[in-house]
């Protein structure tokens, strides 16, 4: 990648569902892209208004979560954050074509070099995560027909496994093709997560990441490049098919 501190197009774009997805999934990688002079942009499809135990819409909570998002964006070093106002928890109720159209238009205006989104299980099986990942990949395919697709699409593939199976990942999400050492910016990932104080699972994540750093001295974020796909590094050859 070339160093283009003043680029207006290009750079790295992340497309997720909720304020806090960016910090859980990709804060370290986005911060490193920023430090390397890339333009870093984020598109969120919801304001997170149902991020309470009752999962009921609360507009004050939406305002608070947008503030938390701005706080996290500051630690990460984002150049642009776009927050759409689709219903939190009910992205699947929005016509899929509408989401694809919006994401395609957002990408076409910005022409990022690479895009990060959620894979088929959205890491946590949250339906909003699944929908945003699928809509993003459809949007990229549509742009490809016009010759303006991003050069690469990555899906989140967590490489931190504190438990036996922390997440129920799809095969694609479970096979990180790119493992990014984010140790140098780990403090900023923790600070970005801490911004999302309205979300009770954030404290657990911070504790988990701190424990991983204490144990290994290193912290990773993982991705699978799904467009173009990455060939297996060491193909396995079989003598026969059985
Ligand atoms: Zn989420």
Description of the molecule:
Strands 3-2-1-4-5-7-6 form a 7-stranded mixed sheet, sandwiched between helices. It is globular. It has helices at residues 21-35, 59-76, 96-110, 127-145, 186-195, 201-216; strands spanning 12-16, 40-46, 80-86, 114-117, 152-156, 178-181, 220-227. The chain has one domain (12-227): LmbE-like (Rossmann fold). The longest helix is centred in the middle third of the chain and has 19 residues, at 127-145. Strand 2 (40-46), helix 2 (59-76) and strand 3 form a beta-alpha-beta unit. It is of the alpha/beta class and 242 residues long. The protein contains 6 helices and 7 strands. Helix 2 (59-76) runs antiparallel to helix 5 (186-195) and helix 3 packs across helix 4. Mean pLDDT is 91; it is low at 1-5.
A few lines on this structure:
Helix content is 38%, strand content 17%.
Characteristics:
242 residues; alpha/beta; Rossmann fold; seven-stranded mixed beta sheet; 6 helices; 7 strands; 38% helix; globular; binds zinc ion
Give the topology, please.
Blueprint (H helix, E strand, L loop, with lengths): L11 E5 L4 H15 L4 E7 L12 H18 L3 E7 L9 H15 L3 E4 L9 H19 L6 E5 L21 E4 L4 H10 L5 H16 L3 E8 L15
Parallel strand pairs: 1-2, 1-4, 2-3, 4-5
Antiparallel strand pairs: 5-7, 6-7
Helix pairs in contact: 1-5, 2-5, 3-4
The structure holds zinc ion.
Ligands bound, unique: zinc ion
Strand content: 15-25%
CATH architecture: 3-Layer(aba) Sandwich
Count of DSSP-assigned helices: 6
SS class: alpha/beta
How many domains in all?
1
N-to-C order of helices and strands: EHEHEHEHEEHHE
Radius of gyration: 18 Å
What is the CATH class?
Alpha Beta
User: How far apart are the first and last residues' alpha carbons, in Å?
Assistant: 44 Å
Main-sheet strand order equals: 3-2-1-4-5-7-6
Helix content: 25-40%
Largest sheet: 7 strands, mixed
CATH overall fold name: Rossmann fold
> Which residue ranges are poorly predicted, with pLDDT under 50 across at least 5 consecutive positions?
1-5
The total strand number stands at 7
Shape: globular
Mean pLDDT: 91
CATH superfamily: LmbE-like
